[in-house]
Write a structure and sequence with these properties.
The structure holds 2 protein chains of 2 kinds.
Chain A lengths: L3 H9 L3 H8 L3 E2 L14 E7 L9 E7 L9 E6 L4 E2 L7 E2 L4 H5 L16 H5 L4 H4 L11 H12 L4 E3 L1
Antiparallel strand pairs in A: 1-2, 2-3, 3-4, 4-5, 6-7
Chain B lengths: L4 E8 L2 E9 L4 H7 L11 E4 L15 E2 L16 H4 L1 E5 L4 E7 L2 E7 L5 H11 L4 H4 L2 E5 L12 H4 L6 E8 L6
Parallel strand pairs in B: 1-5, 4-7, 6-9
Antiparallel strand pairs in B: 1-2, 3-5, 6-7, 8-9
């Protein structure tokens, strides 16, 4: 039987908002052949489209741990569907030095296992000042995976994204 | 004969977008009645087909412009309305969303279609305020008097309080996470 958090997640990836973004090519679910053989809840893998950059992919895959969804936000990092493991740091998207992009996708914090952003459960846990500094990014149970994807997609299509 | 089914996204005031499936030869009115958006015989709702991006083509010098995006005749079929191509339908009581965007002590005005996304308004505002393209990406829209920064895929019509047809935004710089 599906757990409540899994049921909510599955409902949200069937929602009009998720499917509208998928239809526009902004994000989506990978084809089954790109998934690990025994992918169990709370692990999920999705992709996010990126702006075209030389020698860089059209999309990045992310692996999420969505335990407790939506009461708490997912935590995750970039994923390599070929090796079926977290993406090598060298092949992760890079941003202009000192930009918000570079901070959010930094690999020198927590071993690059989570996004340095208030929507990432692991990052939010250790940063008590973020809710005061970035109140618009406080995750609540009204937020969905679409908020999460849209936030990171907006970075991956921004001018601060340089490529891999 | 096999009926062609079309799937589209239905938006409206105070409405979470819905996925709607209907036959291509259904009229929009029939579909909206089934979806509970309008009642039989009701005419006052305006129906917009497609997401409006007209403002992005505005000349830079144009002040207080207005989108031409016209509501459609709901008695036409989905096929005639091109729903298979447009994919988005927005139902609203307002013909336009009169919007003011504040930045650097100035305000730019535009009457957007309710079916305009926040992402389009953000692009429009960055250009109207002549932000340096290299830095523009970090500027986003925030609803005046709040800390709410609506998602870029939201339609303006979805953000309106019932009985109002206007919105106020501040163009603000995103904060870089520190610490």
């Amino acid at each position: 039987m599906e757990k409540p958090d899994q049921r909510l997640f599955d409902e949200d990836v069937s929602s009009a908002e998720f499917r509208s973004g998928e239809a526009k090519g902004l994000w989506g679910l990978p084809s089954p052949d790109l998934l690990p053989d025994a992918l169990q809840w709370p692990k999920r893998i999705l992709w996010i489209a990126a702006a075209p950059r030389p020698k860089s992919p059209e999309r990045f895959y992310i692996t999420l741990d969505a335990e407790g969804y939506r009461s708490v936000s997912p935590t995750g990092t970039f994923w390599d569907p070929a090796s079926k493991s977290p993406l090598d740091h060298a092949r992760r998207p890079k941003g202009k030095p000192e930009s918000r992009f570079a901070k959010v996708f930094r690999t020198d914090w927590n071993g690059g296992t989570a996004f340095y952003h208030p929507y990432d459960r692991a990052a939010a846990k250790g940063h008590d000042a973020w809710p005061r500094e970035q109140p618009h990014l406080i995750w609540t149970s009204n937020h969905t995976i679409v908020d999460y994807l849209e936030e990171f997609h907006s970075l991956l299509i921004s001018g601060d994204y340089l490529g891999v | 004969m096999v009926k062609t089914e079309l799937e589209f996204f239905l938006h409206g005031q105070g409405l979470k977008p819905k996925v709607i499936s209907a036959a291509a030869d259904d009229t929009m009115r029939e579909v909206l009645v089934r979806a509970g958006i309008i009642n039989e015989g009701q005419n006052e709702i305006l129906v917009f087909v497609g997401e409006c991006q007209e403002a992005l083509a505005d000349p830079d010098e144009l002040e207080d412009g207005a989108d031409q995006h016209l509501p459609v005749d709901a008695n036409l079929t989905l096929e005639v309305l091109g729903i298979g191509h447009h994919r988005h339908v927005h139902c609203h009581a307002c013909r336009h969303v009169a919007s003011g965007i504040n930045f650097g002590g100035k305000t730019k005005l535009h009457k957007f279609s309710p079916a305009t996304t926040v992402g389009v308004v953000t692009q429009w505002a960055r250009r109207k305020f002549r932000l340096d393209p290299a830095a523009a990406a970090e500027y986003v829209l925030q609803l005046c008097g709040t800390t709410e920064q609506p998602r870029s895929d939201k339609h303006l019509g979805e953000l309106l309080e019932r009985g109002t047809c206007s919105l106020c935004f501040d163009l603000v710089k995103e904060i870089t996470p520190q610490g």
